[in-house]
Amino acid sequence: MVKVLNKRSFLLALLILCSLLLPKRAIALKPYTWVSNAGTSVKLYVNGKLVASAPAEMADMIYSSNEKLQKLFERNNKGLYFKINKLEEDVFVISSKNGKDIFAVTPDIAEYHNSTPQLLVGIWLSNVYEALYGLHDTAINKDYVTVTWYGGPKWEGNKTASGEIFYNWKLTAASNDLPFNSIVKLHNPKNNKSIIVRINDRCAKSGIIDVSRLAAELLGITRRGVAKLRMEVLHLPE
């Protein structure tokens, strides 16, 4: 009996040791959403993170976005990324990679948040990426990197290396070291501002991240033009 117990104990200890030594793999869970209606405001959560909100009179927009996200997550929960599109002057939308509009940011909603439509759409998109990729410390690597920005009339409307069109108001970045559609979080330790960008372009040299003007504004680096920021690669495309 003692020998049997010792054998079982040995096998159990061996299994535990193997589980500790084997590389950990992230568990792919289906994203979930819900809406909180708190009377004066309506809030949309993804994976427990607040990603967007609006005054109660605009509740229909939040509920519509929630339904669209749920349908999107039902079809696909791997390699999700989004794009910012401009419908008209000062009206921006966050769309899925297949072109389905999810969120709309109008001047009224931006005013409610004491922001501008261009800045708010970037914040909401970054929130969505944070909810999908950044809440469980699954960063592939964490390091400091030199970050610059590019934009202005010279770049507006040009084709990027990935084939997408560059616009100053998109939340994108260029890198020679990461594949297209990598999701990267950048944190500015000087002002504690963070933003999450998608790689869709190449830049002049390796070892840097070159972000769009919108990303630079949200990070607070437009005036200086260059900064040493903390980088976390949250997702690499398969």
UniProtKB/TrEMBL annotation:
Matching InterPro entries: RlpA-like_DPBB, RlpA-like_sf, RplA
Residue stretches in coiled coil: none
Domain RlpA-like protein double-psi beta-barrel: 148-230
Residues annotated as transmembrane: none
NCBIfam families: rlpA
Membership in a protein family: Belongs to the RlpA family.
UniProt-listed PANTHER family: ENDOLYTIC PEPTIDOGLYCAN TRANSGLYCOSYLASE RLPA (PTHR34183:SF1)
Protein name, entry field: Septal ring lytic transglycosylase RlpA family protein
Organism: Acetomicrobium hydrogeniformans
